[in-house]
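Re: the 241-residue chain
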Amino acid sequence: MDRAVEAAGLAAEAHDLSLWSLFLQADIVVKAVMVGLLLASVWVWAIIFEKVATLRRLNARADGFEDDFWSGRDLGELFERVRDEPRHPMEAVFAAAMREWQKSAARLAHASESVRAALKERIERAMSITIQREMERLERWMVFLASVGSAAPFVGLFGTVWGIMNSFAAIAQMRNTSLAVVAPGIAEALFATAIGLAAAIPAVLAYNTISTNLARYAARLEAFAGEFGAILSRQIEDKRA
C-alpha cells in the first residue's frame, strides 16, 4: 500500500504542468535558454521604461528652453546659463553654436566674405556634430532591443527543439507513447518558445515606437538648429563694415 501511494505521488509530481515545475523538470540546456531569455526580457523592460521616461523629460525641457529662447531675452544671458552644463540636447546644440559665434563675433565688422562664410559653416558643423553625438547617446541600447526582438524567438525555438529531442529519447527508452508520458516533456520544451516570444514581442513593439519618437526628437533638434543658424546668419550679415 505504501509503495502504491508513493508511486502515485511520484506520478503526480512527474505530470505537474505548472510553470515552475516545467522549469525544474527541464533539461539543463533548456533551463539555460529559459534563464537567458528571462534575463533578456527583464533588461528589455528596463530599457523601455528608461527610454520612455528620458524622452518625456527631454521633450518637456525642450519646451521650456524654446519658450525662453523665443521670449526675446538676450541670447548672451541664456548662453551664460547653459554654457557649462547643458541639461539636455537642445541646450547643448545652442551652446555649441554660441561658442563658435563668440569666438569670431568681435572680428566680423572688418571680416571678408570668406571669413563670414567660414564662420557660418563652423556654426552649422558644430550644431550638426552635437546633434549626432546627443542622438548616439540617446540611441544607446536600441540595438539590444532590436537583437532581442529578432533573436529571442529563435533562441526559444532552439530550447524547444532540444527539449523535444530529449523527450523523444526518454519515450524511446520507456517504450510508452501514452499522452501522460509524452505531454510533460513536450510542455517543457514549448515553454522555452513561449518565453522567447514573451521577450521578443515587447522588444519589437518598443523598438518601433521608441525609434519613431527618437526620430521625431532628432527632427526637432534639426529644426531648432536650422532656425538658430538662420538667426546667427542674419547677425553675421548685419555686422558688415
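The CA atoms of residues 153 and 196 lie 5 Å apart.
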